[in-house]
Amino acid sequence: MTAPQEPMLIWERPEPPSRPVPSPLSRERIVRAAIDLADRDGLDAVSLRKVAAALDAGPMRLYGYLSTKEELLDLMVDEVYGEIVPSGPAGDDWRAALRDLARRTRQATLRHEWFADLLGGRPQLGPNALAYLEASLACLGDTPVGAVVHVVSTVNAYVLGAVRREVTELRAERATGMDEQAWHVASGPYLARMLATGRYPAVARFVHGEDADPDFDEGLERVLDGVAPLVSGGR
Asked: What is the mean pLDDT of residues 206-221?
């Protein structure tokens, strides 16, 4: 009995041979057109039909290069990971390496807000995503594998939560026409009345206290402080 053939993922599937047509295609051009659409109008604007139209090509031509919209999204995510991965070696300072990756992830997400919507879940397996993972793991040197998993997953969880919150705030500003300060001013009287009831003492302490909301870098340093004991030799 013949064994079932292993499916070939998009990363290993060859592209069709190029043809002399008025609108030549390639995976690179398709992915770039999709990213441009998503950057301008969000993920809802991305479909094989719309991408084909942007490239002045028929939708069916795209199926020679990818099979589903999900494959297109995977390719888009991997393209952004390519913007994140440093071009040079990380060096021996694990904190500096993870800090750099975190900041680069935030910067790339602010350039491509839709990227935040596609992070998390199952690991990405594209070459650039694997290079990102390699950089994250390699900077921890001879730290035991179990500790490495905890360090990297903890830092990534912070980065993911922080950038998603920042993107959500940017979207709220565009939708309402109010930045965060204007929203605080508008909602302030209501909040003051609710706190005056005495039913929310912990919230009142938080609201009336010093600014307890750290910025991205400050929060990142606290996370790195927290995982430092797990790193071999206290490096």
From this structure: 78
In DSSP notation, 202-233 reads HHHHHHHSS-----HHHHHHHHHHHHGGGSGG
Residue 232, Cα to own-chain centre: how many angstroms? 28
| 1-37 per-position pLDDT tens digit | 555 666 678 878 888 776 666 667 899 999 999 999 9
Predicted pLDDT of residue 46: 94
With CA atoms as reference, report the closest residue to 109 among 163, 72, 38: 163
Instruction: Render the burial of 128-148: b for 16+ CB within 10 Å, e for the rest.
Output: bbbbbbebbeebbeebeeeeb
With vertex at residue 222, the alpha carbon angle to CA 219 and CA 226, rounded to the nearest 5 degrees, is 140
- Assessment of whether the complete model's pTM goes beyond 0.70: yes
Return d(Cα 32, Cα 38) in angstroms, integer.
10
User: Torsions phi, psi of 15, nearest 5?
Assistant: -80, 155
Q: Which has the closest alpha carbon to 151: 215, 235, 226?
A: 226
The b-or-e profile of 185-197 (16+ CB within 10 A means b, else e) is: eeeeeeeeeebee
